[in-house]
Amino acid sequence: MVSGEGISGRLEWKINVSNGTSKVLEPEKGLAARLWQKLHSMIFLKIWRLFVESWKIGVADPKKFTHCLKVGLALSVVSLLYYMRPLYDGIGKNAMWAIMTVVVVCEYTVGSTIYKSINRAVATIAAGSVGVGVHWIASHCDKEYQPVVLGASVFIFASTATFTRFIPTVKARFDYGAMIFILTFSLVSISGYRVEDLVMMAHQRVSTIAIGVSLCILISMLLWPVWAGDQLHNQTISNLEKLAFSLEGYITEYFSNEETTKMPEENLNKKLQGYKCVLNSKATEDSMANFAIWEPSHGRFYFGYPWKQYLKIGAAARSCAYCIDNLNSCIDSKMQAPEALKQHITENCTELSLCCSEVLKELATTIKTRRRSSNIGFSVDKMIFAVEDFENALKSLPRDIVLQLSTVENSVDNRVEKLENPNQATLLEVLPLGMLATLLMEIVARIEQVVQEVDKLADMAEFKIQKEKKLQDIQPTQNDNQTNNQGQETMKTVEEV
């Protein structure tokens, strides 16, 4: 039985169940209430997800969190130009230019901060000087021709500065400065037409910009500095290690079967997909190398360190990564060689991949320690010998394939019939292995190119030779210790007698 009663102007519906109990049905919410509840839950969920992602970013790289603190500190300090009356009276409303400078110039790395600071300071001084000069020329003309002179100067200098931004050298190092030159010169030229004391205005703006630039450089260098050179150095090391792990992992996966032990999927994916980071690293390396050139001497890196050579190492590493990418497509191809054929070269391919991986790891260690490794020559020779063994294994492959095909044919087909063209079938069977062999040899050739580029870096940066203890140096010391111990025991025996 269903009943409805009015309670304080509302309807309350009850359902009487057969067992004597009753259940109250709440009235359905309106459309606006439902929309508000849904919108509220979505907003709260997005805010929570944003907080979780921000927390993960801060935990993964605490330097990003400290960079935020440095920007806040720089803005707080430069805002004193407004809060302190003596400073405000000396600089005036142009103090806002210092705040704008801090917001624009304060970057994540020291190199990028110095790059923007120097470009902004030089461009501001140059544009201000040219603007004052143009204003002086215009002031000596008739009043009617002054706007024409100023407008023509803006057109000429702005067009010329914009064209220089297309020049590769200027684009790489002075693009930001060219943009600031256009902005500052236009503001000085236009505002100078209505301002009486243009020199004082230009002087105050240059002063405030110099204050903001100096403050940003000091804070970025003294408080938890993040050097672009260190990041480029570490990324180059990481890329070589990722190439080594990817190459070793792909060869292991290609020649693995169900009986062999397999590593967890997460670890395997990290090893196999590492080369993709190398393929996408060009833009990052170019920007970091450009910023590292501006950085002063710090740690193990001096001013004028050959950062451009890291770009050549990165280019050689990417060429090697392209071959590994093709190796990946070869492994995922539907056309695969029989297991019996793989077994013929499994040992040689695995040995060759291990040798290549060893060379890449040795190169990464050389760059990391900034010391010439005495084992790199031995590792390269070992890799070359592995290539020769691999070629010898491939030379003996066709004869085994013909024998294998004839055996399989006789065992499967009782009718003694031969293929019309067994060599064509053999070629189709060998084709995947031929592609694999070609890629491995090409990888070896490109690894040798990486070795040459690292050797050039060692020469340019004057890497020291790594000192290693040899067995011949250790044995004489052990023999001397044994002789000394025997002499001491003989002296004790003589004393006892």
TrEMBL record:
The entry's localization annotation reads: Membrane
Which positions, given as ranges, span the membrane?
95-115, 121-138, 145-164, 176-195, 207-227
Q: Which InterPro entries match?
A: ALMT
Q: Would you kindly state one Gene Ontology biological process term found in this protein's UniProt entry? A: malate transport
Q: Which domain of life is it from?
A: Eukaryota
What's the main place this protein lives?
membrane
Which GO CC terms are listed, alphabetically? plant-type vacuole membrane
Its membrane topology: Multi-pass membrane protein
Q: Which Pfam families match?
A: ALMT
Instruction: Could you list this entry's UniProt keywords, alphabetically sorted.
Output: Ion channel, Ion transport, Membrane, Transmembrane, Transmembrane helix, Transport
Q: Where is this region: Disordered?
A: 471-497
Compositionally biased tracts (Low complexity) = 473-488
Q: What family does this belong to?
A: Belongs to the aromatic acid exporter (TC 2.A.85) family.
What's this protein's name? Aluminum-activated malate transporter 10
List the taxonomic lineage. Eukaryota, Viridiplantae, Streptophyta, Embryophyta, Tracheophyta
